[in-house]
Design goal:
The chain has 5 helices and 11 strands. It is of the alpha/beta class and 243 residues long. The chain folds into 2 domains: 93 residues, Elongation Factor Tu (Ef-tu), domain 3; 128 residues, Nucleotide-binding domain of ferredoxin-NADP reductase (FNR) module (Rossmann fold, 3-Layer(aba) Sandwich). The strands form 2 sheets. The chain has a 6-stranded antiparallel beta sheet, covered by helices on one side. The chain has a 5-stranded parallel beta sheet with strand order 9-8-7-10-11, with helices on both faces. Helix 3 links the parallel strand 8 and strand 9. The chain is globular and about 50 Å long. Bound molecules: flavin-adenine dinucleotide (FAD). The site of flavin-adenine dinucleotide (FAD) has 22 residues, from strand 4, strand 5 and helix 1.
Amino acid sequence: MDYSARLVRSSSAATGTLFVEFEVVTPGFSFQPGQASLFSFPPEFPLGDKSRIFSLCSAPSEIPRLSIATRLTPGSAFKEALSKIQPGQPFLIEEATGEFLLPGGETPGTLVFLAGGIGITPFRSMIRELRHRKDSRFRILLMTVNRTGDETPFLSECQEWMRAGRLTWIPVLTREDLPPGVSRQERIEEGLSRVLKEAGENSLLYLAGPPGMVDTFHQTLLGQFLVEEPRIKSDMFFGYLSR
Ligand SMILES: Cc1cc2nc3c(=O)[nH]c(=O)nc-3n(C[C@H](O)[C@H](O)[C@H](O)COP(=O)(O)OP(=O)(O)OC[C@H]3O[C@@H](n4cnc5c(N)ncnc54)[C@H](O)[C@@H]3O)c2cc1C
């Protein structure tokens, strides 16, 4: 089923990252943190390719407000249109789907969230919802990987979560402050090593972002750090594959 929505406002979540807020007009829309929906311009909108899948980066408790964030990839007619439209623009949103969800049950534990760039979106939804519910079951270690601080989506929100406690944020920058001779991969390994040491052996590892980044995290965790596969859950943002 399609739900009608309208754009409320858009702003910047970082250099090159667009943050868009919608209001769902059709009653009954619901989702779980970590899920994604297909967002479409209406049939009459003058654009060939009208739809894209986005993870919802707001929390379910914020409904009827919904938000998404996206990397502005040059050459994407969809994103160019998205960045130019005005408040009030109608949109269609499909039922949210996906199994990239927080653990069920009451058991407390440590969760490691590894966000490759724009991959922070499902984690933002999870963190905002846990904070809203004052649910402190999980200790969270959030590692974000971006080229520079300016390109880190939701940087000030990450800082705020860190100050509020129960969350440790490890920002890894792969282009800024990189000493000569240190590679991007080494930076990522350094970050992973720190996170894994702090998280302990029973933690669950959640990986999200463009497939190339998720793949790098996955291979490094299995190959370098000998993490067992069942501890890992991945959310690949397919569609970024072509880049
Ligand atoms: C579960 C999930 C969650 C996602 N969450 C986010 C998010 O939070 N933020 C974000 O920026 N991106 C997210 N994506 C990726 C998003 O759907 C786009 O693919 C991506 O942003 C690139 O869009 P583009 O307009 O630059 O693609 P372009 O490079 O312009 O598209 C090139 C071609 O690929 C096709 N295409 C685009 N996306 C997809 C797709 N997902 N599957 C199959 N074909 C596709 C297009 O129709 C087009 O023909 C997610 C994808 C998935 C599957």
